[in-house]
């Protein structure tokens, strides 16, 4: 149903950009750029995982920061208490992912029966519980102050970390692409388009939704781990609503229901954040750069429900065949 | 015993405060089936506009009127520009009202600055009465009274007036009401404006109670309101007042006996309610 021609072209484009990004730090040596790009890769992974829920299954979660935070704390706590080696980092990331898989399974089992509003509320509340737990369990988390930790020798070089994040982003991209192009991914899209119809076709909608949320949760945990590693510091802010909001903004602006969209969205938002806060010295209004995104976001939801990538695709598709790219049209209706 | 009564009164006052916050939200959700995530933004704007006027004129009443006025204006804008384009689509409603919430709370900081503003109750509401060992803070008593009045007003409007009848009918069958020659769109706009005004008013009333207002207060309090609306059953005004009282009382007792849990207890209640009875603890059949 989706024009494979375009998606393959997109993959090729993605691969080329990825390769260019591999070469980039060797040509242009700038530490702050390197860190900024690393940040983009990390949030791209996070936003892609969010899009599995929002764009491919049609569920709005307000608790995605929960998994991000689990990943971040898993790595941080391990590195704080044990000698930082690569093996430990890998183990900690895997542990975080496993932990997230279990949590997202349990949470999904509990929450995914609920309708859109209630689901959003409940995920918000559950993420809130994690935030409170992190605030209160001071012996482990040091509360809101957070703590710093040492990273393995290998990651002392920002370049190494940049490359690792880049590779992981590309792996996640192609992995998720494979996932949504699989029969299972097709069922998710069917659920998103019309839940009742999918149900009446005999699919156990709940099962597939849980699978989607498990996949999303695990990958979100990976990005959280990387985030903590990049800062070499963690505090309870990783559990806040702001993190979920970031993912939401990136996904919607970049293009919901596409994998390249969240990556693009992550890049746009991180870059704009970087530059606009830099401009704050010029004029104080740039301190409040989020307003701009809020407005763009509202306009996007209203007029460009497919985001940048979706809209471009639509344009391209119009040239070829007149076919409706239904992406973000009404999904879950109550009743 | 005194402790028990004091805690109960505190809990009641907090509960009423939360009810004020939740009343507008549950009205909007119950009648229009719109979960307004921008509610906290309306609330914070009401608080800021009201407090600004209050500090300017030194009249608490002026502050309240200012807050209500602000709520009505913002309600109009929100309904017309933000909600109307996405009626009937819940996912888009969630997304768009959340976006509007961001804009509202950031814009607030642009106008009034990101710093906290201290607020005190007016002279005639400061201080407390002492009956035996029981201490009743005047402002809390005031909040309790206002909460009950608000409840009575909404209840009466919905159940015993013609406009309430139209609104309730419009919820069940929009087309039917429309075909009777009633402009249901306009009615919904009014309902939304009323809900927004309530949010703004509660913001203004909470300000002296909390002592300070700050730019992020919207989301903070909105979560409480959501919790109450969910526990009470969305759109159920009686459920909301009961749930708010419940949350207020539990919060008050928890804060005294198990302070570690007090932050999480609301969320826990909501989570349990959603799991066991997603239609709300006090929801009527259907």
From TrEMBL, chain A:
Taxonomic lineage of the native organism: Bacteria, Bacillati, Bacillota, Bacilli, Bacillales
GO molecular function: branched-chain amino acid transmembrane transporter activity
Record localization: Cell membrane
Domain of life: Bacteria
Keyword terms: Cell membrane, Membrane, Transmembrane, Transmembrane helix
Protein name as it appears in the record: Uncharacterized protein
Membrane topology: Multi-pass membrane protein
GO-annotated cellular components: plasma membrane
Main location: membrane
Matches recorded under InterPro entries: ABC_transp_permease, LivM-like
Automatic annotation (TrEMBL), chain B:
Family: Belongs to the binding-protein-dependent transport system permease family. LivHM subfamily.
Keyword annotations from UniProtKB, A to Z: Amino-acid transport, Cell membrane, Membrane, Transmembrane, Transmembrane helix, Transport
One Gene Ontology term of the molecular function aspect: transmembrane transporter activity
GO cellular component, one term: plasma membrane
Name of the protein: ABC transporter permease
Principal subcellular localization: membrane
GO biological process, one term: amino acid transport
Bilayer disposition of the protein: Multi-pass membrane protein
InterPro entries: ABC_transp_permease (IPR001851), BCAA_transport_permease (IPR052157)
Localization, UniProt: Cell membrane
